[in-house]
Each structure stands twice: as structure tokens, then as C-alpha cells.
Amino acid sequence: MSESNAPAISSPVEYIQHHLTNWSVGVEHGEQVKIIDFSVLHVDVLLFSMLLAGLIAFFAWKVGKSLNADKPTGFQNVIETIVEFVNQQVKDIFPNADSLIGPLALTIFVWVLLMNAMDFLPVDLLPSLAGGIGALFGADPHHVYLKVVPTTNLDTTFGLSLSVFALIIFYNIKHKGLVGYIKQFLFHPFGPYLMPVNIVMTAIEEIAKPVSLGLRLFGNMFAGELLFLLIALLAFSVWAMPAQVILGSMWAVFHMLVVPLQAFIFMLLTIVYLGLASQHDEHH
User: Which Gene3D superfamilies match (predicted)?
Assistant: First the structure.
């Protein structure tokens, strides 16, 4: 997120905590939310991720409805460029991909890119707006929380990575068969004489795929979000406000590389993992 105006909350620690707290259902104010708690729903994560998914669907429908090969619009050219870029990655990494891989890779890339790009909104814009709306209904604005960037939440990144992991298992069974998939755990990588070691090593290898996918995206986006908040804290001092503008602008420029790069890496690793899952035993 870009740098903000003077924060409304007086304490720097309270300011950061407020911006890193989700709008949640199923948890009392001030109660610490567990890392894994299926009784708590993060409404802001669901809201923004679904809004962005709906935006993708709308523009895809709009472009598909008005396709013109003879006189393409500028927006159509942009969409075609993105589609060709993703298709080229799929062809290079997964030459024998079926019809699902291309649309899946495109959806992942665009959706993750848009969720990451929410980080470019000013840190206080939407939370302050949410606080104002809450105040109209009698709520304390300091107790109205809104976390804008879905990918700064583990539930978003692990939801995506676990979905990819489910597809990895599906493609393994589809191309190797259930018996072949089980044999991969038993005999890979050290042969039949070290089956217990093979099972442990292969299980770790498989589990590391969704864990690394989810943590990499979360870690990079959360760190970027936190750094924007630290820069915004400079507004607590009038003398530091010029430094806030300079540092905020510099980090925003750097973050413009991080945002698409993380979306690209997530998409690329998804294609790689599904390509590996589609290889038969002799190629594994």
C-alpha cells in the first residue's frame, strides 16, 4: 500500500495491530484468533477475493462478447497478450498439458495478481471508510477492522496452494493410476530396500509443495504490507513526513515488481508441479 495521511489512531503499535486485524465473524473483540480456527470467518478476505474474482469473470465475459479479430480494442490486445504469455509458459513447461491447465494457469495468475495489487491502495483509505460506515451504525471506528489485501492472509494463500495440491494428487492418480501413485511413495527415491525411508522422504517432498507455495506468497505480501505500515507510521512525526513520501514512493516502485512476480511464480510452480505429476514412473 502506498503511504497514508496522518493515522487516526494515536499509538504506533495500535495502528499496526489495527491494520493487521481482520474483519472476522465468530470471534469477540480483543480475542486472539488461532492460526487454524475453522469457527472464525474472515469476512474481508472472502469479500475482496470474491469481488476480484467477479471482476475477472465480468471482464472475461465482456471481452469474449465483443471479440473482433479485424479491429481489436486496446483492452482486447492487453487480454490477448496475457493469454499468449500464459499459454507460452504452459507449452514450454508442460507440452502435453490437457485443456484444463491453460485456463487454470491464467486464472491463478490474474487472480493472484489482482489480490496482490490491492496493496497499492493507500493504507488508510478503505479501513477509514469502513470505520466511517461503522460509526453511522453506532460502532466504535477503532473496533471496525478491514484487511484489504487477501494474500496477506494464510487462509487465502493456503486455500490456493491446497487446491493446487488436490490437483497434483488427481493428476498423479490419473496418469500413474492409484497403484502407481502408491508405488511412488514405496520405491522412490532409494528403491525397494528402503521403503520406510522412501515413504518419509516422498511424503515430505509432496507436503513441501503446498506449504512452500502458500508460505512464499504469504511471506512476500505480508512483508510488503508491514513495510508500508512502518513507512506510514512516519506520519506520527511532522518532521518525518518528507521521509515518508520518499520512502513510500521508493518502496511502491519496488513493490510494483514484487506484486506481478509473486503471481507469476505461483502460476509457474503450479504448472511445474502438475507437469511432474503427469509424468509416468520412468520419467519421474
Answer: ATP synthase, F0 complex, subunit A
Residue 220 is among the residues annotated as catalytic for this protein: yes
pLDDT single digits (tens) 96-134 = 888 899 999 999 999 999 999 998 888 878 888 888 887
Which phi and psi angles does 42 have, rounded to 5°? -85, 100
Rg (CA), the chain: 22
Cell digits of residue 97: 498439458
Amino acid at 224: G
Active site residue 153: no
128 is catalytic: no
90-99 long-range contacts, Cβ below 8 Å, gap at least 24? 90/271, 93/268, 93/271, 93/272, 93/275, 94/271, 94/272, 94/274, 94/275, 94/278, 96/278, 97/271, 97/274, 97/275, 97/278
DSSP letter for 7, please.
-
**Partners of 42 in beta bridges:** 24
C-alpha separations of 205 from 184, 198, 210, 212 in Å:
11, 10, 10, 11
CA–CA distance from 85 to each of 67, 100, 116, 172 (Å)? 19, 16, 19, 26
Angstrom distance (rounded) from CA 166 to CA 115: 22
The residue from 11, 66, 96, 212 that is catalytic is 212
- Give every residue of the chain whose pLDDT is below 50, as ranges: 2-8, 283-284
Which member of 216, 237, 249, 278 is catalytic?
216
